[in-house]
Specification:
globular, 783 residues, Methylamine Dehydrogenase, Chain H, 4-stranded antiparallel sheet, alpha+beta, 13 helices
Length: 783
């Protein structure tokens, strides 16, 4: 008692001092606990159980409790607790289900005192009563909590949570008989140790397992809980129903939570995985930590404040095999690095921007009118939090500017109309694109309409287009299966095309192209003169002159006699230079590139004398007429990315569905579009999008929550068997209250009295009467 009094006096004069320090452990730590005089700390783990003394600048190992040649599983600790009334008493929770107490006052090396083996599975937590020396509480993975009297050899009470494993148990500091227990199913139970048969209160605290809980040291009604849902919640249990008064969102599962001494609104947390840091939160400002300790390199497993009345030092153990003492003054302050600006959109499209007053006032915008001067006080102009003596966050005065948006310009009617009118399946690809382009055009969305049209052009089968097109003045060579060229006169192509493809009397000389795009098969008897501007001269042999079908010709006047060729009077003139392999494909390529054909270019492909006419028919296309879908995929993907980044996920998903297997899918676009459809209550469209998706993760969305649990309309008990008959009252459950026949189609029922029947019958009944047709007296309402 003299030593404890000396420590208390020292605390009163603020003589406890220290610095941020650490020591390396022999093995990872699972839990730590500190004695009441703040001079020693015990570290327990799977392979470590030691006591260290806290000196001014270092940790000093004092005692190793793992003794013996063959250490048993009783030394493998999941939790450890140092009694706050007796400095020689320790308790550990073993992984084999044992609860062990240790007496440091024993003269022998083995300090083990008592062993309780009543739990069948791992014990997760042990807790001493804050004022009762001999009372110990444990919580186990087997779902039971046991209260031990250390003067006896077995537990005196067993508490069954009627639930899954117990993760934490804590005695109330202010209420002698109350303790709290947290469970894997998300519930928290409050028990009275005098009534082990049933809990006093139970409430659902988290969405998932609750890993820890801690009573407030000053306010008897506050209980902090942490769970796998990354939340830290503070509950007020003084009311009839547990009330959540504070909530802190962290970035990982919360493994430990401890209230900070002498600071009503501060608590410390550490995470079970991913995050290695220790955070101190002010629950009044839950969006950013008040302080952060970043020393550990692995998951922090245990935290404890050094003394019940000293907020300046925090002890922690980790899986990185280190033990740290953190001095609070050395902690980093995330608020100092936080962005002082904020931006947010309102429900009606208004844009709010908050920043420091100095930044906004320094902008020099004298024409800016303060928002709200017109009488609309939906938003505050300035907000300033008055200084609080206990508030240690940096105070900032911010200015809020709100920019209003015209409601008509931000309406989403186009989204709803587009979703309802788009066709995504059931017709050929071209018709779907045409229909959707028409819908977009009618809704004044020309860019979207053009996109649908381009998709039809890119992915449609070219065979469906016209197979023959002509070259006219100012025209170009389109994608086709064949084309005709006709030489007209020395002036080149005239204003009127004389390609009469529809006349059957036109003779054609067909020249086939090889894969190398060579226009004419070269031979020694007939060669083209390239670059000649005058009439072409030809040299014929004796036999060739007798072939009348060599150059069939058609004159403008079909009744006139055909001109005959005759040899010159003065022997044969000298032949001009003959060019081998004339580059006719290059001329044709020039015509593809340029839509205008000059007279000289037309003469370059002339094969007959100027006074005659020739007709050339090419039966093979100049290039591949059908490009694979993969050719357009990069462009289409960029287009889809553009729409998605612009916020039009509707267009991106609609194109993905219509294209089908032609392009790779993006699942997150589907989920975003489905979420939007459901917000606008477009359930049928949403279900169609889900069904048309080729992703298994999307297809299963409409398969969840499809089970409907109903009660029998007679006995009001749940229907357990499949069929029409209730297995309890043996009455038909789905009887129409109007016609008294079995309902085998759509069944509608009142959620107040459970009576119902055929949809049409109930609707007609409620048109004339508001009372239940079954005669129960309930006022039913159909909406």
């Amino acid at each position: 008692m003299e030593k404890m009094a000396r420590v208390t006096t020292a605390l009163g004069s603020n003589t406890i001092s220290g610095c941020t320090m650490f020591c390396h452990l022999d093995a990872p730590a699972n839990a730590i606990s500190v004695c009441r005089d703040a001079a020693q700390v015990v570290v327990a783990g799977r392979n470590i159980f030691k006591i260290y003394a806290l000196e001014e600048e270092q940790f000093v190992e004092k005692l190793n409790l793992r003794v013996g040649r063959k250490p048993s599983l009783n030394f493998s600790c999941a939790d450890v607790m140092w009694h706050q009334m007796d400095e020689n008493l320790l308790a550990t929770a073993a992984t084999n289900g044992a609860v062990v107490t240790w007496n440091l006052g024993k003269p022998s090396r083995n300090k083990q005192d008592q062993l309780f083996t009543e739990h069948k599975r791992t014990v997760n937590k042990v807790c001493f009563h804050p004022t009762e020396v001999h009372m110990l509480l444990s919580g186990s993975q087997d779902g039971y909590m046991k209260c031990f009297d250390l003067r006896k050899k077995e537990s005196v009470s067993t508490f069954s949570g009627q639930s899954e494993s117990v993760r934490d148990v804590q005695f109330s500091i202010r209420d002698y008989f109350t303790f709290a227990a947290s469970f894997e199913n998300g519930n928290v139970q409050l028990w009275d140790i005098r009534r082990p048969d049933r809990y006093e209160r139970m409430f659902t605290a988290h969405n998932g397992p609750v890993f820890c809980c801690d009573w407030h040291p000053e306010d008897r009604g506050w209980l902090a809980t942490g769970g796998r849902d990354k939340m830290v919640k503070v509950w007020d249990i003084t009311t009839n129903r547990a009330k959540e008064i504070h909530c802190v969102q962290t970035i990982a599962s919360v493994a430990r939570v401890k209230w900070r001494p002498e600071r009503k609104y501060h608590l410390a947390t550490c995470s079970m995985m991913v995050d290695h840091n220790i955070y101190v939160w002010d629950v009044r400002r839950p969006f950013i930590p008040f302080a952060t300790f970043e020393e550990h390199k692995d998951v922090t497993t245990g935290i404890v404040w050094r003394h019940l009345h000293d907020p300046g030092f925090l002890l922690s153990g980790s899986k990185d095999s280190t033990l740290y003492q953190h001095k609070f003054k050395d902690a980093s302050r995330p608020v100092d690095k936080a962005n002082p600006e904020g931006l947010c959109f309102g429900l009606f499209g208004d844009l709010a921007f908050a920043a420091k007053e100095s930044l906004i006032s320094g902008g020099g915008d004298s024409n800016r009118k303060p928002y709200g001067s017109g009488g609309d006080r939906r938003y505050p102009i300035f907000f300033f939090k008055k200084p609080d003596l206990t508030e240690q966050f940096a105070h900032e005065s911010s200015a809020l500017s709100v920019f209003e948006t015209d409601l008509e310009s931000s309406r989403m009617d186009w989204f709803v109309k587009t979703a309802r009118r788009y066709l995504l399946s059931g017709k050929p690809f071209g018709e779907l694109c045409d229909h959707n382009a028409k819908v977009a055009k009618e809704l004044n969305r020309p860019q979207v309409s053009t996109t649908w049209t381009m998709l039809r052009v890119m992915y449609s089968d070219p065979g469906n287009l016209a197979t023959a097109t002509s070259i006219s003045k100012g025209g170009s060579i389109p994608l086709m299966n064949s084309f005709n060229m006709k030489e007209i006169a020395a002036g080149g192509l005239g204003s009127e095309s004389r390609l009469d493809r529809g006349k059957g009397e036109i003779w054609q000389d067909t020249i086939h192209l090889d894969p190398g795009n060579s226009l004419i098969n070269n031979n020694d008897e007939n060669e083209e003169t390239e670059g000649s501007e005058g009439p072409a001269d030809y040299l014929f042999g004796d036999a060739e002159l007798e072939d009348d079908n060599l150059y069939p010709m058609e004159h403008e006047n079909p009744t006139a006699e055909e001109a005959e060729y005759s040899l010159p009077q003065e022997a044969f003139p000298l032949r001009h230079e003959i060019v081998d392999n004339p580059s006719v494909p290059e001329h044709l390529q020039d015509k593809v590139d340029s839509p205008h054909v000059s007279g000289n270019e037309a003469e370059a492909v002339c094969l007959t004398p100027i006074k005659s006419f020739s007709l050339i028919s090419i039966s093979q296309p100049l290039y591949e007429s059908h490009l694979p879908a993969s050719f357009f995929s990069p462009v289409v993907r960029e287009m889809l990315q553009h729409y998605a980044e612009a916020g039009d996920v509707q267009m991106a998903v609609s194109v993905l569905i219509v294209l089908g297997d032609r392009i790779r899918k993006e699942e997150h676009w589907y989920t975003s579009y489905i979420d939007l459809l459901q917000r606008f209550e477009l359930w049928n469209v949403s279900n169609e999008v889900i069904k048309l998706s080729t992703s298994s993760a999307i297809n299963c969305l409409n398969q969840t929550s499809t089970t409907l649990h109903i009660n029998c309309s007679n006995c009001k008990r749940p229907m357990s068997n499949k069929g029409w008959i209730c297995d309890r009252c043996h009455q038909c459950a789905s009887i129409c209250a109007v016609c008294h026949h079995v309902v085998k189609g759509l069944f509608v029922w009142c959620q107040g009295c459970s009576h119902g029947g055929h949809l049409e019958h109930i609707m007609n009944w409620l048109k004339s009467s508001s009372h239940c047709p079954a005669g129960c007296g309930h006022l039913c309402e159909y909406t």
